[in-house]
Design brief:
- This protein is α+β, with helices and mostly antiparallel strands.
- The protein has a single domain, classed as Alpha-Beta Plaits, CATH 3.30.70.
- It is 34% helix and 17% strand.
- A four-stranded antiparallel sheet has the order 2-3-1-4, sandwiched between helices.
- Helix 1 packs across helix 2.
């Protein structure tokens, strides 16, 4: 399996605030996140990571994840992804007794340098489940930032069928 290309500029890696559009895939394209408890666990890991860096948007697809995130100071996008991927791998193996490989090695990222590209990546993230044929409209997909934010605003609580858990100041 090919390792994704890296697009970050090594000279700008420690600028004050850097925003990236990141994609990471499950090992061998396994549809790990079509199971609600796995998707819910990943969302919980993302919430925990919000204390270390800013997650502006995300979508959890059955076999991959798209993120729009910003890192500051001396934190690199590589370290942020280590927190996400490593945190999820640890928790799924410990809490759900998953024995297999979780993630494809590496990830791909694109530096977001202006408001127009930021909006474009947000739209791409929102429309990804629609383009994949999972839902008829973006509002219907439950494992994305906007859907979780709406549920929180409506005061909806987790349910036993794989809905959401916990809150944080940055993540919905």
């Amino acid at each position: 399996m090919a390792v994704p290309t890296r697009n970050s500029d090594p000279h700008g890696i420690l600028q004050s605030r850097r925003t990236f559009f990141v994609t990471t895939r499950t090992y061998m394209g396994r549809r790990l996140f079509q199971v609600d408890r796995n998707a819910e666990l990943l969302v919980d890991v993302l919430r925990a990571c919000a204390a270390r860096f800013r997650i502006h948007d995300f979508v959890v697809m059955p076999e991959h994840v798209h993120l729009l995130l910003s890192v500051e100071g001396d934190l690199s996008v590589e370290k942020a992804m280590q927190f996400i991927k490593g945190g999820f791998s640890y928790r799924i193996k410990k809490e759900l007794r998953y024995a297999g490989e979780v993630w494809q090695r590496g990830f791909s990222e694109v530096r977001v340098n202006d408001d127009e590209s930021f909006r474009s990546y947000r739209e791409y993230i929102a429309q990804n489940p629609v383009q994949a044929g999972l839902v008829a409209s973006a509002e219907m997909y439950r494992w994305c930032f906007e859907s979780l934010k709406r549920r929180k605003a409506q005061g909806l609580k987790p349910s036993s069928n794989g809905a959401l858990c916990g809150t944080t100041k940055v993540m919905p």
